[in-house]
Amino acid sequence: MRRSAFFIRFIGIGILFHIYVGVRLIPDAPVGLPLKVLAAALLVASVVFIPLGMAARSIEAQPLADRFAWLGLTALGFFSSLLLLTFARDVMLFFVHLVDWLRGAPVGSPVLVAYSAVAVPALAVLFSAIGFYNARRRAPIVSVDVPIENLPAALDGFTIVQISDIHVGPTIKRGYVERIVAAVNGLKPDLIAVTGDVVDGSVPHLADHTRPLAGLSARHGAFLVTGNHEYYSGADKWIAEFRRLGLNVLLNQHVVLNHDGAQAVVAGVTDYGAGSFDPAHRSDPAKAISGAPADAAVRVLLAHQPRSATAAAEAGFTLQLSGHTHGGQFLPWNCFVRLQQPFVAGLVKFKGLWVYTSRGTGYWGPPKRLGAPSEITRIRLVASS
After folding, report:
1. How far apart are CA 107 and CA 103, in angstroms?
2. Do residues 197 and 127 both lie within one domain?
3. How far is CA 332 from CA 23, 77, 131, 219, 362, in A?
4. Domain enclosing residue 281, as ranges
């Protein structure tokens, strides 16, 4: 019931935003009536397709559901840019008209009003095309060195390849995953870290598309922690499937690695909010490290959400690897991530703990990345100078 009420409000707000865009752009555009009618029709279609795409997971016929998802989510990505640019145009026109009024000049700037009404949808198309390309290409490799004090010589150069937030689902399928796996294996890492949100859907619908993850290969194996989307999609069944694929799933647990005579601890916690889905899965960094060797120079925590960092620092971890934020994925959402998470992307030092937040290896929702490129992250431990 609550979900239905939210969806109804979402549709209502969406209709109001579409009306705002139509009223602000269509009358001002210097085009003929047929093009104005076409623009209005496209906005009406967008009002229909966006909620249809958002609700596509509830459609049992999988090929049809995926087509609706592609259509609706692509429309959502485009309309996000269109709405933002329309608002930016109104702000610009307000200040231009204000300056004209203060100067005693005629207020209106008809040429600017007319051509900016055309520039807004043109820029929205351009931004969406660039964002689509960025989202659908294989994530580039990002290399990061993490300086560790008193790092044993055997661990100097120890390499972890992190992938996160792939979101296998309506628009990300097996071929996309295969390209990621090939790139990761090509880096020949000592360890692979998969930091959650691998899937957006059920095991029966997506098992074939996640199967390439069984091919992940590293000296010490591939380790995985759950993200919030695993809990939306049936976490217990996905945990069993990931383990069947040969991934080491860490549920508030750790393992001790022996790397050329030096010890390193790799721990993993369930998603920060997992306890609201299953109290037995409450995220607990202290429990994850309990019983680990006290003299281990390196203690790495895999935690889907960056906000696990406070508890991780208190538990004595050296490095936390997280994802979840997507770096904001595209404007304007980049500006709002910090309202929920302490870190958005990149490497930071927090209370003696290094935290690396990946922008994600896939994308969620609209196939669009703008200003927040995806990544496959090669993390190298190096001795602090």
Report:
1. 10
2. no
3. 22, 11, 13, 40, 19
4. 141-383
pLDDT by residue for the chain (385 residues), tens digit each?
A: 566 777 788 889 999 999 999 999 999 999 999 999 999 999 999 999 999 888 877 776 678 889 999 999 999 999 999 999 999 999 999 999 898 888 887 777 889 999 999 999 999 999 999 999 999 999 999 999 999 999 999 999 999 999 999 999 999 999 999 999 999 999 999 999 999 999 999 999 999 999 999 999 999 999 999 999 999 999 999 999 999 999 999 999 999 999 999 999 999 999 999 999 999 999 999 999 999 998 898 999 999 999 999 999 999 999 999 999 999 998 877 778 888 899 999 999 999 999 999 999 999 999 999 999 999 999 999 998 7
| Residue for token pair 């209370």 | 351
d(CA 168, CA 171): 7
Do both 154 and 296 map to the same domain? yes
Task: Tell me the longest C-alpha to C-alpha distance in the chain.
Answer: 80
- Domain termination residue (choose one: 94, 114, 135): 135
Give the number of domains in the chain: 2
DSSP per position, 143-188 = EEEEEETT--GGGTT-EEEEE----BSSS--HHHHHHHHHHHHHT-
Token digits of residue 304: 């889907």
Tokens found for residue 366: 């609209």
